[in-house]
Design goal:
The complex is a heterodimer.
Chain A (H helix, E strand, L loop, with lengths): L26 E5 L5 E5 L6 E13 L5 E12 L5 E8 L4 E8 L13 H4 L4
Chain B lengths: L6 E6 L8 E3 L6 E5 L22 E2 L2 E7 L2 E4 L18 E5 L10 E5 L34 E5 L25 E3 L12 E2 L5 E4 L10 E11 L10 E9 L1
Parallel strand pairs in B: 10-12
Antiparallel strand pairs in B: 1-2, 1-7, 3-5, 4-13, 5-6, 7-13, 8-12, 8-14, 9-11, 9-13
Classes of the chains: A mainly beta, B mainly beta.
């Protein structure tokens, strides 16, 4: 790793979103496996969300269980009502989508209320 | 990158006083049901068929298998499997490690396959399956034959000390999401598990990077209108992580 600078986000100390300093975060990029990049901008810090959605299947009567991931999501909160603009890499269809949603009752994949504390949001 | 390294559904195969938790989430691990109480350690090829009953009722015996021919009854204690009882309140639980961080409250449901496709709610289907419901489960609309109940807090905050107030019935269900009240509460009536239509949402987002569990109960019904089939479905914990 000689000569490789750590990423500025998190100062290379942690890859955990909840540990990342968001005070001056005004841009967020989602680098997709197919080379496409989803990008969002904010006027100030503490406006971005980042999460993955998936689950754990448990087989009943011989069905195959296991972990899965549906999507990797980023978003920017636009107002105090929690409205947000999101971009998501959908793993099964391998496409980048853009949608409007709300952090207090996220309709996408029926996620529901996001944890503001975990996301480090100031809304 | 903070997904969980280990997350599983566990079933209690001994007793409330001395629970022993079987991991239902590994490869070739599975839940099975039977109307016979002596099917522990029976390989799937020899698993007995169940005759479609003339009246609706619960499928009495639930088994936790950790290999094709290695399985015990829920609360079986290495013997014959007892009939489902809501009062066996340490029935099952979702378990996760201290590696991941939930970004929202987890959701518990069931799908016909691990492709998680849309389920068409009955009753206007010709061959009503286990999760669609039928005239058997009709209560305004059809509900799944698979019912669940869940505890209102993580186990570290206090495990259940009693079962839900009401036993499950075949018509239990509420369209959409149901949650127990936050704290030492079960859901008043069991919720049906029907894909993205009917499901249970935890009333909490578990603490970051903290190992814990979420106690649950589940029961399967059948009836004269359930289409005969080999049912191979999945029960699923949907969750988000940072």
């Amino acid at each position: 790793m000689l000569g490789v600078k750590p990423l500025p986000i998190g100062i290379g100390a942690s890859s955990r979103w909840e540990d990342v300093n968001k005070d001056h975060m005004i841009g967020l990029r989602l680098l997709c496996p197919n080379g496409i990049t989803g990008e969002l901008e904010a006027p100030e810090g503490h406006k971005f969300i980042q999460l993955k959605a998936g689950g754990l299947d448990v087989g009943i009567g011989g069905a195959k269980g296991g972990h899965y991931q549906d999507a990797h999501i980023i978003g920017v909160v636009k107002n105090s009502n929690g409205d947000c603009l999101c971009r998501a890499w959908e793993c099964r269809t391998r496409r980048l989508t853009t949608f409007e949603d709300n952090i207090f009752h996220m309709n996408y994949l029926h996620i529901g209320l996001l944890s503001l504390e975990v996301q480090g949001l100031k809304v | 990158m903070a997904d969980f390294t280990t997350m599983r559904l566990e079933g209690n195969i001994v007793s409330t006083a001395a629970p022993s938790w079987a991991d239902l989430s590994g490869a070739n691990h599975e839940i099975r049901w039977s109307d016979q109480n002596n099917q522990r350690n029976v390989a799937s090829a020899l698993w007995p068929a169940m005759i479609r009953p003339a009246a609706t009722g619960i499928v009495s015996y639930t088994y936790a298998f950790t290999a094709d021919g290695v399985g015990e009854g829920f609360y079986g204690n290495a013997g014959n499997c007892p009939v489902f009882s809501k009062d066996n309140y340490l029935w099952s639980r979702w378990w996760w490690d201290n590696v991941g961080t939930f970004a929202s409250a987890p959701i518990w449901t069931a799908y016909l396959t691990n492709a998680h496709g849309v389920i068409t709610r009955g009753p206007l289907v010709a061959t009503p399956n286990m999760l669609q419901g039928s005239a058997d489960t009709l209560n305004g609309v059809d509900f799944s034959y698979l019912k669940g109940n869940a505890w209102g807090r993580v186990t570290s905050a206090g495990a259940p000390a009693a079962g839900p107030g009401a036993a499950p019935v075949v018509t239990d269900g509420t369209a959409g999401s149901v949650s127990p009240g936050v704290g030492a509460n079960w859901i008043a009536a069991f919720q049906d598990l029907m894909g993205d239509l009917d499901y249970i949402t935890a009333p909490f987002t578990p603490a970051a990077t903290t190992q814990d569990q979420w106690n649950t109960e589940f029961a399967l019904f059948t009836g004269p209108n359930m289409w005969p089939s080999l049912y191979q479905v999945v029960t699923t914990l949907k969750y988000t992580w940072t």
